[in-house]
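Predict structure. Input: MATH domain-containing protein, 371 residues.
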Amino acid sequence: MAKLFRVVKLQDRFNTEVFTFQLPAKLMKDSAQTSFSKDFNYGYQKWTASFVKSEKHLGAFLRLRTASPHVVCNVDYAFTMVNTEHFTKNETFIEKGSEFTKENDTRGRQTFISLEDLVSRTFIQQTGEFLVELELRHMTTAMECFVRIPKDYQARYASNIKLETPYFSFGLFDWSISLYPNTPTQDSEGNVAVQLHRHTNFDHLCRVQYDIKIGENQAFESGTIEQWLDGGGNGEPYIIGSTIHVLSRGRSTVRVRVNMYSVVSIGEAVLPVLNKNRNRVHLYDKDKQAWMLESDISGKYLAFKLYYTDVSHVPRKCTRLVSFDLAVLSIDLERPTIKASNGPFSRYYVQEDLDEGFKMHTNIPVREVCW
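Output follows.
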């Protein structure tokens, strides 16, 4: 087993993350040829790393676990065997713009490092294990397909016709795009309405960022869209000022391309921040783990404390990495949403009886809340 024991987010514009794995000391003696990691998340997809021993070399491979038809994931990745003496003696190979698809979901190199070098070049740690870093950066996810257009889509009785893309995976959810070719507007008929759907996990609202391109030479390009999807998983439909005939150039299919950028599960809670007897609320994350949020007005500015109440359920000898953020909404819809300072946040949790809580500060003066 390749044990994942550290994740570092570099907070750069490429969303770089470094995953460090421990390979067991018996790697050199064990007759087993392959060592797998457990699944881990990056770029809103699920991955696994594997290390394959041949007669003379150790290979390193990255596999996309959530590959789905019509989806292409591009990512830069690098495997590094960490040397105990100095980082300049590390062994690294880098692949840029690697393409992962349903048909080709695994990339890597069979000759990552020779078995002889593993021993002779002091890669063995004091514990007898080997450390391998996997750096992932510049991740993109795109779904592209051709949607068939029914022959009778222009008929009057076909006003409710819907064209839909195949389902695709992103952010551990299933999605699709629907096109409604005969959507009437005040100015004309035959305009196309577009709607994004989420088909799995309806326990939370979610906020998603994406863009869409429909057609080819005279294509519609939306630019980046940020939407809240309701409890049913449906985004707000919007109208394209074009017809399906123009977008398809008179063909029997129309090309649809969706670039997915981010999706965040949202839990909403009403919290009486000034009532010391009722200033707590219980929440559940998408993994059904329980949390408690508590307001704090003891300082000059409004703050909140988040407790992981199910921290005792973290498996023994395991660590759970959780990322979260907080935003305060005003009753007055015209006033902007105020986010917690220095968010989003990431924390490691291990099994313990009680969580001491994590404090998040805002720039909202307590006197304004009291007023």
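The longest helix spans residues 115-120.
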